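quick one, 261 residues, struct below
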Amino acid sequence: MLGRHAANAAERRPGFTTSLARTITDLRLAQRLRYRVFAQEMGACVPGRDQGIDCDLFDAYCDHLIVRDTATSEIVGTYRLLPWVRARRAGSFYSQGEFDLSRIAEVLPHTVEAGRACVHLDYRGSAVLAQLWAAIVDYVRSSGAQYLMGCASVSLADGGAAAHAVREALRRVKVPSPAVSPNRPYRFRPRALAAPNAAPALEPPIRSYIRLGASVCESPAWDPQFNTADYFVLLPMTRLNGHYARRFAGRLPRALAPAAG
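---
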């Protein structure tokens, strides 16, 4: 259910606009949104907290997708994208800090990594996540990459119940698991088990990946900085689900091409 601010805004806005951040101001606003979600909501100890932003060394090498509410011009959603060429300049992909990707090393030169996804609290359940996914699919295709990968995070603030629910849901729908392993595995705790009659559930980003045709590593990594269980996700573009790809594609007026270099 949308918050009151978003519900009021929905009455007057024509929609959202999606673009890449082109200025340092755009980037800072995206990083402030990330700080609001990761630090203030989730309690993560993020780099840049003294400035009220979430930032790390990968930000300088990434393209940053942003979604704005056209009525307020506020950035209400963001995702960052890291192509292989710039990952080499950064020293690695972000995911390589959490997972051993040596068994899929041959796909990395043909990959774009997505990460640091967040949507403003008042806009969850709206079209913002779909706008971001439309842009991601368009970006990967424009870059000529053959794979999309990333780490989808599940908060452990509930003691691990949500992470357990994700694992059970992955098993129930028989999602294939890529050949990777976590560097720091998250250890599921018996006390985190959901009630017997509780339905297994997938977090929205993971659900979006699966609908598009991705595989998900069943064994998550533990991220102590964010207090999350991180699931590695790999989507070969050849397996892209046509129905959802067409649905997303209809949301964008033009291609979002990666920045040079």
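The helical segments are 4-10, 24-41, 84-90, 128-143, 161-173, 204-212, 242-249.
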